[in-house]
Each structure stands twice: as C-alpha cells, then as structure tokens.
Write a structure and sequence with these properties.
The complex is a heterodimer of chains A (about 600) and B (about 425). Chain A is mostly helical and about 600 residues long. Chain A contains 27 helices and 5 strands. Chain B has a single domain (about 1-420), classed as Spore Coat Polysaccharide Biosynthesis Protein SpsA, Chain A, CATH 3.90.550. Chain B has helices at about 1-25, 30-35, 60-70, 90-100, 120-125, 150-160, 175-200, 215-220, 230-240, 265-285, 290-325, 330-335, 335-360, 365-395, 400-405, and strands at about 50-55, 80-85, 105-110, 135, 165, 170, 210-215, 245, 255. Classes of the chains: A mainly alpha (about 600), B alpha/beta (about 425).
Chain lengths: ~600, ~425
C-alpha cells in the first residue's frame, strides 16, 4: 500500500511532484501539452504525444493490438494549461459575445415578470427592507437576488432611476462574460482541443437561445455561473483537496441561487470522481459533499432562526414554500401539442434547434462511446447533466418553466463541442497506420481531410442561417415599446402618483416606484392584491380602492384565478392602449371607484 | 449592537482558528503529489551511515528484551544499541545486561546515576558514548520495523537532512473511546501535520523514532534536562538554527505504540505535554526563526493546547448566546460558522479513521465511527481539562521533577497499563 505512486519519491515534504509522475513529466514539451483527450480516442502507438512519450523514463511500449481497446486513465493525460493563445482567443470571442449580448439588450426580449420580481427584491435589499418589499415567503432561496443586489449596487448609487428591469439587464453582462470564460476554461480542463473549447464557448455565448435568455435578469443565469465554477474546480488538474472543497461550496451557492440546480449535482460528483486521484479521492469527494451540504443547510437554518422553518398559523414557512414549488400545476407533457410544456420546448427550438438537438446528439454519442473514448470519459459529467435534464423534461407532467433550459445551455454546448471533437478525431486519426515518421498514403490523408472539411462546412451551413435569423431579431427588434410607452403615460398623465393606487405586473413595478408611486401599497404587484393578506387588508373595498390597472398579457392571463384583479379588469375602461393584439398593454381606469 | 458586534468578532476568530487547524491537519492529502512525497524513498541498497540507537528504559523489564531483540533484527548492517538504565533499577538493568552479554558487539548498557531521573537526562548521559554518525531514540516498548534504519539511512543521504523524523502510531484504537481518538490524533499528526511543519521549517519533534546527526546533536548541547517536552524543545531549537528536518511516514515503517491505559494516565500525559509546550514557548528559542510566518506558526503551534481548550468552551457558549440573546438573524448565522468548521473536521476525521483502518489492515466497525463522533465532545473536555491543569501547574511552579514523579513521564510506565 505504500507505493502505488512511483517509487522515485523523495522523502521530503515538498510541493514538487515526485519524478516519474506522468502528469508532470509530460508538461516539459509544449507539443505534449497541446495533446488532448479528444485527439486520443484510441491509444495508438503512432501518437507521439501520448502520456509516456515525454517522460524519457517511460515504460516500454506494448506492441499494438488492433482489436484490444485500452483504457487511458485521465490522470495519465497531460495537464491542461491555458497558454497565451488561449487567452487571446478567449478574449477575442468574449468581445464578440459581449457586443452581441449587449446590443439592443433593453429592447429585446420582452420584459419578463420574473425579472421584475427578482430585481424589485434586490431593490428591497438595497433599501434595507429585508429580503423583499412584500413578505418574503420562501418561494426561492434569497441568495440569487442578494447577488443581483450586489451587482446593481454601485450603478444604483450613481443613479437610483437606473434600477429598472430594462436598464439593469446590463448587469447581467458580466455574469454572462464570466460564465462564457468558464465554459472555455472548463473545456480545456476537460481536455478538449482548443478549437473545440472555442466552439463550446461560441455555442454557449452566441446561440440565439443563449443570447435571448442570458440577457434577462434570471436567477438561473447566476446559478449557471456558480455551477460552472464548481465544475471548473472539480476538474482542477492539480487535484487539490481544497479545490474540490471549493467546488462543493460553489455548487451549494448555485443551488441556493436556483434550486433546480440540484438536478445537476450528480453530474458534478461524477466529474469530481473522474478527475480526482484514487489515493486522495475519498478525502476530496467527502470534503466536497460536506461543504456543499453544510452551506446548503444554512438556508433551513436561516428559516429556523426566524421561526419559519415549519408551517404554522399566521406566518410563512420554508416547508410551505417547498410544498408550493413541488405542487405547482403541471404544464403537461412535452409530446402533446397544446400543453404548456410543449409550447415552452417549441419556443426553445424556435430560437435555436442546433444547440438542443446537437447537444442531445453529442451527449448520446459520448454515452455510447464511453468505453473507448477518452473524451467521453472526461466529459462524463456534462454528458450526465444533459441526460438528467433531458429526462426530467420528458416526464409526463410537472411544471416546466421557460428558463429551465438556461441551466442546460453550458452542458449542451460542451457536449456538442466534445462530440464534434470526437467525430473529427475519428475522421482524421482513427486507425491511422504506420508509426511516427512513416507517412501514410497520401490519398488516405487527403480523403480524411476532405471529409473533415466537408463536415465543418456542413456544420457551418446548418448553424449560420439559424443563428443569423435569431441574432438578427435579438439585435434589432424592439419588443418593449408598449411597456415603455405605458410607463411614460403613467408618469405623465397621473397627477398625484403618491396618492394613486395601481395594479401592475412585476416587470414595470420599479419604473412606477421611481415615478413617485408608493412601493407596496400604492403601486402593487397585481397578484399580491389577492394573495398577500397584508396587501388585501389595505383594500377593504376590493377593486374599488384601486385607481388603475396596467394590464399586460401576464395580468390578463393570471387574472382568472385572482378575484380582485378580475373585478378590477372587468370594472374598468381602457384610457390608453399601446400595441395591439395579444401583446397590447392597456392602462385601465377603474369605473366604479370612489376616487 | 455591542453584543452583536462582539459575537461576530468572536465567531470569526473561532472560525479562522478552526479553519487554519483543519487546513494544516489535511496537509498530506492536499494533492496526490504531496501525499506521495510524505513517504520514505525506497532505499537504494547501499547503507553508508552508522547508527547509535538510544533506548532509555526504566522499570521496563517486562518489554525491554523483546524491544532489543526486535531492534537486533534490523536489516541495516552498521548500528549499536545503547540501553540506558537507572542505577536504582536493578531489574531492568539485569535484562539489559543479559541482552548485552548475548550480543556484546551491538548492545551496550549505560547507567544513569542522576539522583532524580527523567528521559532527557538519561539521553544526555548516553550521548558521549555514541559512536555512530546518527543518534536514534526509541522507547523501551516500541515495536520497530527491521527495514526502518535502511530507509532512514537513505533519507539522510538523499536529502542532506540533519534530522529525520519517522512515524509513530498508536494502534489499539479498539481499546476504548478515548484510545480511538488518541490513535487518530497520532494518525493526523504524523501522517499529515508534521510534514507541513517540516516544509515550513519549524517542527516540534516526536519523542521517538527520531534520528539526528551526532555532531549536530552534540553542537546543540543534547536535550534540555529541565524541559517536560524535551523532544519538542529539541525540534524547536534545531529548526531555529536552520537545521534541515525531514519527515517520512510509511504505514509499514512506523513505530507502533499503545495509548495510555486509563483516562487519568492520558490526562496526566497530556498535562505534561502541554506544560512542556508552554515551557518551550517561554524559552523563546522559536523567536530566532528567520521568517515571520515561521514565528507565527511556532507561536500558534506551541499555544495550540490552550487555544483548543478555549475554543472547546467558547463555541457552545457562543451559539447559545446567539440563540437566546436577542440578536439579528444575520448575526446568529455568523455564530454557526465555527460549528461548520467543526462539522467539516468531524467528517474528515471519519474519513481519516477509514483510511487508518485501510493503511493498517485493521477492521474499523460502525460502532467505532459512532464512538468517534459521540466521543468527540468528551475528548474535547479532556483536552481542555489537561490544558487548564497544565496552566495551573505551571503558574504554581509545579513543574519538572514534581510532575515527573507524579505522572511517571516517558521513563516509568507503571501507570501505562497494557
């Protein structure tokens, strides 16, 4: 049990790895460092850049057997190191991503109700009003909008009026930037070749689906950043105990940011298992699980300290919050047209079918080739994440939110890029005859490269039109003109905003707050009128105590189950209408009101 | 507000203390490379150094013969054994003389005539008689591996070290709840933490399986006869002089020992060590360490027993204060930070126990893990008790001889049941 590692160890305690550890000795040659898993699907002797080659003291090569499939341990592959080229490539691509994501960010996509909710709660945190300006009811852990509060803190000091959904979308750009860089860095750590890492980052940052969703102030985008950090740490080439511990911490923060990230944790565990060393694995993995669980437990602890862990009369509770989330009405099966789930998935496919179908195909390829492809084993974690997330989508019923796909995007991008790398490798290198220095037949080489180039061209031909269309919309369309006009009208036409009571959806709530409406009871999240007893109490006359309703599609959709809102809509007349059709925004004045 | 601020400050201090201790405790498992480097290098077959092995024995007639005969099985070719016996201890002397008569080339008997006896005096008595290049120290009940000397020889030659510290491991974890924790303490100390100390250039040496170049030891003036932790003191003095210390741990090569036989014996042993640490701290040799970080590490390490006692008491108090005094929830969450570190430490101890079982081929059962967890707080109380007792004794000037005669120290193991 004393010498599983090479014998040539010094007996000093030193941070230098012992001579003969393949991971270290191979880094001498830059050639070797460039060598990546994806180009090593089968350990052919012709691979001069194989792990043992640079060592000098390497064990003698076994003669090649065609049929035998040898498994290369990940630990034997050279350590990935980012070079200057990587940094330049990454920064170049990042600039493009940032321009595409930032351009027209305030006008597209539609301001969403959820964005308004989180930003308003972040605003409440900044105001020192606790975790929300209405009673915090454990709908989500608050870590997400605490981060939003931090991100928007300095801008909001410069100009408090900037604290609106459209403007603060800019605060999501750094989040997207860090995530994109992490995708590249993670791809390198998972030993994908450089071009493939580049492709993963491009897919993640430039897919129209990404561009649309990453612009929005969603908790999922923050959770993605943290889970990517966790994966990046889990795949740390130094296999450091505290890196793995840190991965657990980052994963916990990710889950506390958006609880659906729980689904991805098994995939993180697989990544950590794969990338840890057998000798230190049990400490590393237990450390990571411990740190993750302990930090995760802080949330129930917080509820306990507030005496809000268990349900009880007269107060909210964490258990109630969880029960609500788990019992949300299902949106039906994805395979039945007409259901909510089907519509949501269709909307994803509308923006970018390439990353979704391609990612699924990539995951399938990696799962199938798991036995003999080093790439597949290195990417086991991301592939598993895709599989889990896909399986959950296909369950027959259950609630499927539109932003669900956000947490899948980095993994879809990674497995798609890895699948492409695997295929390329198979085309270019697999069963390559001859030893190093002895060229193979020119015709074969030409055929291989022709095939590779053809595949590349085909890929671009498929991707380019979809992406062009999707991103063109994102860069040019103005989807929020009606909202802006409605908000402007409310600021211009209402004489005494401080004494006026308005039902609005969350997306424009902060805009009205800045115009002087009283936050909470003057300008009201429409559903709070019915659902929050503290607000209902201030409306003894029901809809008659309200002056205006800013009726957006969300308000009209949800009013069905909300008596006061429904009454208010039915007993009011439009005084201004912006846009037309389903998406129109109406400002309605309550008819029978006592004002 | 003041209470809240106070609680936050105390919590953060406790958190960082526990975090640092944990960080150092886990040193060996940081990366696979670090773990590999903590082991002995494989000897190349040529032994060059000669060894003088000192075995102080006092009322050890029952085990001494076995220990010496085991030492004589060493695979190394060039060594002598010096058994040090007291002039007032004829039984042990008789066993020693018998061994010397059987192998006069290898074994000699040195008689210590000091009126009041302790281990450093015995070692100092033998030092002038050492003929080897390297002096090694073993206790009379130690089970020493036959390959050890060859490995140590190799370590000295390949690293140019002045001191080589081998591993010592308590083995009888199944004897009682406290022996379980005691074994694990040794495991983390010799398997992991000591390597960090060697790397940082400040190391409190262990009491046996420690090897020092003879001329270095003579220049340093041998052991401090007045110190209750002469081993720790020697390490601190040698590191302060910039001597190179190398630590190696191999589960096959460790010197195996057993825990004190009763709680009281453990308490007394720990009191003596703590008092010894306090003495070393007050001797201020560590102030000559060149680096600021080294001095801080020395300060912290020598004070650890007392910090440990302090934290053991203050963590629960802190949490209770947060729960029952009216402080904001945000502040209350802070008080749980030290508890989190404690939980992480617990988990790593469980994994450590598992690893210990594997390394030594011992069967660790579920009940042992249970004992480890349940016994944790009680062991903490024991450590705190020993620390308080040590401070109290040191304050009252009840050090050295009085204590030694009470506790029995290394030399007389009458209170160490087997």
């Amino acid at each position: 049990m004393t010498s599983t590692l090479p014998a040539a160890t010094t007996n000093r305690t030193t941070t230098r790895p012992p001579a003969g550890t393949p991971a270290e000795t191979t880094t001498d040659s830059t050639e070797t460092t460039q060598m990546t898993a994806a180009t090593a699907t089968a350990p052919a002797p012709a691979q001069e850049t194989g792990p043992a080659a640079g060592a000098g003291t390497a064990a003698p090569r076994r003669p090649r057997r065609r049929a035998a499939v040898e498994r290369i341990s990940l630990a034997l592959l050279p350590r990935p190191r980012a070079t200057r080229t990587d940094v330049l490539l990454c920064l170049g691509l990042l600039t493009v991503i940032m321009v595409v994501q930032a351009w027209n960010i305030t006008r597209f996509p539609n301001l969403s109700d959820d964005e308004g909710t989180y930003l308003a709660q972040a605003w409440a945190v900044q105001q020192g009003d606790g975790l929300a300006h209405y009673t915090y009811w454990y709908d989500h852990p608050p870590v997400g909008w605490l981060q939003i509060a931090l991100l928007t803190w300095i801008p909001s000091l410069i100009s408090p009026d900037w604290m609106t959904v459209a403007t603060m979308r800019y605060a999501m750009l750094p989040v997207g930037a860090v995530s994109a860089v992490l995708v590249y860095a993670l791809a390198l750590r998972l030993r994908l070749p450089r071009w493939s890492a580049f492709a993963a980052m491009a897919l993640f940052g430039l897919s129209p689906l990404s561009v649309v969703l990453q612009r929005e102030i969603f908790l999922d985008n923050l959770a993605v950043l943290w889970i990517l950090l966790a994966f990046w740490l889990a795949a740390s080439p130094s296999r450091h105990l505290w890196h793995h511990f840190g991965a657990g911490l980052a994963a916990a923060v990710s889950v506390l940011t958006k609880e659906t990230m729980l689904l991805v944790l098994p995939a993180l565990l697989v990544t950590m298992w794969r990338h840890s060393h057998p000798e230190t694995r049990k400490f590393a993995v237990t450390g990571a699980i411990t740190s993750c669980v302990l930090v995760g437990l802080l949330y129930p602890l917080f509820a306990l300290l507030n005496s809000e862990l268990f349900p009880g009369a007269g107060h909210v509770s964490l258990i109630d919050g969880i029960v609500y989330q788990l019992s949300r009405p299902g949106s039906g099966s994805l395979f039945e047209p007409g259901t909510g789930s089907h519509a949501v998935v269709q909307s994803w496919l509308y923006y970018d079918s390439v990353i979704i179908y391609g990612g699924l195909a990539g995951a399938a390829l990696l799962v199938v080739t798991h036995r003999w492809s080093v790439t597949a084993r290195a990417l086991a974690g991301p592939a598993l994440a895709v599989v889990i997330l896909a399986v959950v989508v296909t369950r027959p019923s259950g609630y499927l939110p539109a932003m669900y796909v956000i947490q899948a995007l980095p993994f879809l991008a990674l497995v798609l890029a890895a699948g492409a790398a695997s295929v390329t490798h198979a085309v270019l290198r697999r069963r390559r005859p001859g030893r190093e220095g002895i060229p193979q037949r020119r015709a074969v080489t030409v055929a291989r490269w022709t095939a590779a180039v053809a595949l590349g061209v085909a890929a671009v031909a498929v991707v380019a039109p979809t992406w062009y269309q999707g991103n063109k919309t994102a860069l040019t369309e103005d989807a929020n003109a009606s909202y802006r006009a409605a908000v402007a009208w409310m600021g211009r036409e209402v004489a005494e905003p401080a004494d006026t009571r308005v039902l609005v959806d969350d997306a424009v709530w902060l805009d009205l707050v800045h115009q002087g409406y009283e936050p909470g009871t003057g300008v009201i999240w429409f559903y709070k009128a019915d659902l929050d007893p503290a607000v209902t109490e201030t409306l003894p006359g029901g809809y008659r105590d309200i002056d205006y309703v800013v009726s957006s599609p969300t308000v009209r959709r949800d009013a069905v189950d909300l008596p006061i809102v429904k009454d208010a809509l039915e007993n009011s007349t439009p005084v201004a209408v912006f846009g037309d059709g389903e998406d129109r925004i109406e400002i309605r004045r309550i008819a029978g009101g006592d004002r | 507000m003041l209470t809240a601020a106070f609680i936050v400050v105390v919590s953060l201090a406790l958190f960082w203390m526990a975090a640092f201790t944990l960080w150092w405790q886990m040193h060996a498992w940081r990366t696979p490379e670090v773990l590999a480097a903590t082991r002995f290098g494989r000897p190349d077959g040529e032994a060059k150094l000669s060894f003088s092995l000192l075995v102080p024995a006092r009322h050890e007639q029952a085990v001494l013969e076995h220990t010496v005969s085991r030492l004589l099985r060493s695979a190394h070719g060039d060594y002598e054994i010096l058994v040090i016996v007291g002039h007032d201890d004829p039984e042990t002397a008789e066993v020693a003389e018998r061994a010397a008569a059987r192998d006069p080339e290898r074994v000699r008997v040195i008689t210590d005539t000091h009126e009041k006896k302790n281990k450093p005096k015995a070692l100092n008595t033998a030092l002038p008689h050492c003929r080897g290049d390297v002096v090694g120290v073993f206790d009379a009940e130690d089970q020493v591996h036959p390959e050890l000397l060859a490995h140590v020889d190799h370590a000295f030659r390949t690293t140019g070290a002045d001191v080589v510290q081998g591993g010592v491991q308590l083995i009888n974890f199944h004897s009682s709840w406290y022996s379980l924790r005691n074994c694990l303490e040794y495991f983390f100390w010799f398997r992991s933490r000591l390597h960090l100390h060697a790397q940082k250039g400040f190391i409190p040496l262990g009491g046996n399986t420690v090897f020092v170049r003879t001329e270095v030891l003579r220049q340093a003036g041998g052991w401090d006869p007045n110190c209750l932790a002469e081993d720790c003191d020697l390490g601190v003095r040698l590191s302060s002089e910039g001597r190179k210390v190398v630590v190696a741990y191999d589960s096959e090569m460790v010197t195996r020992e057993e825990t004190p036989g009763s709680l009281l014996a453990l308490l007394k042993q720990r009191t003596r060590w703590n008092q010894g640490f306090l003495q070393v701290y007050r001797k201020r040799d560590w102030r000559r360490l060149p680096g600021f970080g080294q001095r801080m590490l020395a300060r912290y390490t020598l004070m650890t027993p007392f910090l440990q006692a302090f934290t053991g008491v203050i963590i629960p108090v802190n949490v209770l204060a947060a729960l029952f005094l009216d402080v904001p929830v945000g502040v209350a969450v802070f008080t749980f930070l030290p508890l989190l570190t404690a939980a992480v430490t617990f988990v790593f101890e469980i994994v450590g126990l598992h690893d210990f079982g594997i390394q030594y081929g011992l069967k660790v059962r579920f009940v042992h893990y249970l004992k480890l967890i349940v016994g944790g707080p009680f062991y903490q109380v024991l450590l705190a008790g020993a620390a308080v007792r040590a401070v109290w004794r040191e304050q009252r000037g009840r050090n050295e001889w009085e204590l030694t005669s009470h506790v029995g120290a290394h030399l007389s193991r009458e209170d160490v049941l087997r």
